[in-house]
Write a structure and sequence with these properties.
By secondary structure, the protein is an alpha/beta fold. The chain is built from 9 helices and 5 strands. A hairpin with a 2-residue loop joins β4 and β5.
Length: 186
């Protein structure tokens, strides 16, 4: 599906120019987690911010939520290696809190550069936080998940965050349906 393996490029090289614009107080290299995946991916998954396991491994969605994501993708016949996976904020917020506006603002140009470079057919914000920021909406993820939206010349299909299924098993089918809807658009 992809023509470039995720390991054939370096995030900090590919996005060097835009990374230079991230304020020093927002760029803690010890908590930095870059986006991964093929730069020609049809699907881009966007989370909120990295967690502790992501920082340890240097890749988004590799903790328990990432394992849940992998299971869901596999169940619908898709491989995470065919997706570009990133976060709104590339540095883990202290105590795993929601990112502050200043953090989102600091990293937003990087996400925009990722969107421009990858040019995915469909963008999938994972969870309420990413969905609210990307769609600039106050609607809840419960109201918008699985629905395609045209936003800034992109197709956006919000999904429940995979972590939601860890706490509420009834969300597994919804996440599967959300991602299937996104992949159908791609």
């Amino acid at each position: 599906m992809s023509d470039q393996e995720p390991t054939e490029w370096e995030f900090e090289t590919e996005f060097a120019t835009v990374l230079e614009g991230v304020p020093d107080d927002q760029f803690d290299r010890e908590r930095f987690v870059p986006g991964v995946g093929p730069l020609s991916a049809d699907v881009m998954l966007v989370g909120e911010a990295p967690g502790g396991q992501e920082v340890a491994e240097g890749e988004p969605f590799v903790g328990q939520a990432g394992k849940q994501l992998d299971r869901v993708l596999e169940s619908i016949g898709f491989d995470r290696r065919d997706c570009y996976i990133t976060n709104l904020v590339k540095v883990r917020p202290p105590e795993n809190r929601d990112p502050y506006v200043a953090e989102i603002d600091a990293w937003w140009p990087v996400l925009e550069a990722e969107l421009e470079r990858v040019a995915p057919s469909v963008l999938v914000p994972m969870g309420s936080f990413a969905t609210a920021e990307i769609l600039d909406t106050d609607e809840t993820i419960t109201d918008v998940h699985g629905q395609p939206f045209e936003h800034e010349d992109r197709i956006v299909v919000p999904s429940f965050h995979p972590a939601a299924a860890l706490y509420d098993r009834s969300k597994v089918d919804a996440i599967e349906s959300d991602l299937a809807a996104a992949l159908e658009v791609a």
